[in-house]
Amino acid sequence: MNIVALAGGVGGAKLADGLARLNPPPALTVIVNTGDDFNLFGLHISPDLDTVCYNLAGMEQRNTGWGRADEGWDVYQEIQKLGGPDWFRLGDKDLATHLERTRRLGSGEPLSKITADFCRVWEIDPAVLPMSDDPVPTIVLTDQGELAFQDYFVKLSCEPAVTGFRFQGVENSQPTPGILQAIQEADLIVICPSNPWVSIEPILAVPGIRSALEEKLVLAISPIIAGEAVKGPAAKMYLEMGIIPSATAVAKHYGNLLDGFIIDKQDEGLMKVIINRETHPLKVFCADTWMKTREDRVRLAGEVLDFGQQIIEEV
Ligand code: FO1
User: Fold this and answer.
1) Which atom of ligand 1 approaches the CA of 47 most closely?
2) pLDDT in tens, 40-70
3) What contacts 120, CB < 8 A, 6 or more positions away?
4) Among 53, 54, 88, which residue has the most ligand 1 atoms within 8 Å of its CB, making it the best to mutate?
5) Is the separation of the CB atoms in 50 and 66 below 8 Å?
6) What is the Rg, in whole angstroms, of the alpha carbon atoms belonging to the chain?
7) What is the DSSP-derived secondary structure letter of residue 172?
8) Rounded to an integer, what distance in angstroms lies between the CA atom of residue 86 and that of residue 98?
9) Cβ(88) – ligand 1 distance below 6 Å
10) Domain enclosing residue 169, as ranges
11) Ligand 1: does its nearest atom lie under 6 Å from the Cβ of 89?
């Protein structure tokens, strides 16, 4: 099967990794949010892209899901001694990625080309495509004013109350070369269990991507289980935007884009409500969606593909 997955941070990276580890693996393209990208010490940091790549390469830090395993912190500790910015923890190995990426961007190479070359070195089989080679930074609108994404997310620990989001420059951005073709050729689109507001929406906002997806079979996995986000501020964002966080809210969020939706077993009671929504009918599948181990990732990925296959056969 030919799959295109849309992914943001840790949840998306885990499912993408599960899909890539299936036996036999599907032909897989992962489109990754770059709205979280920012600059620190003059370095271009692409947290979601790196999280997806490190997970696909099996070299992610297991306890956080982001950053590198067996990481050294010499540079970080020296920066702390000098009184430099230490709110965003960059490990020594991770810094090599940012240094080399920044050097190549500075000489005019596009982010997608650099990412493809890094993936070859890290022996990553799936195609990993940043959503755009153009910068589209996410701006979080909050009760403390407009905040750059990482200032909101890491520096302020997601504490400000959110009133909206802006994807700066998105109207003039273009999808990375290869994205629209990958979508056209896909049998199934998988929206990973990433934050709908700040991981998936930026991808959908890049001109041409949403309309290309509307032509395809799309299924999503809810990142909200029993009213809580598995990781990160998704549930808090729903509440602050005046919506009760639930798998139902996520299904509503994606609206007519979805043909299938996977919710956690804990939310089995919501199944009927989601199936019978007012918009076009939705097929719903219940699974254990909490990916604690590598085996969980592969098991869930297998269930996603089986469910996808079922939807393909019914259409
Ligand atoms: N998240 C944190 O909460 N604190 C950090 O210090 C931090 C450092 C970091 C370094 C590299 C990287 O690729 C990701 C990092 N993240 C950190 C995660 C990241 O900022 C967010 O999880 C994503 O942007 C949201 O998807």
Assistant:
1) 13
2) 999 999 999 999 999 999 999 999 999 999 9
3) none
4) 88
5) yes
6) 19
7) G
8) 16
9) yes
10) 2-314
11) yes
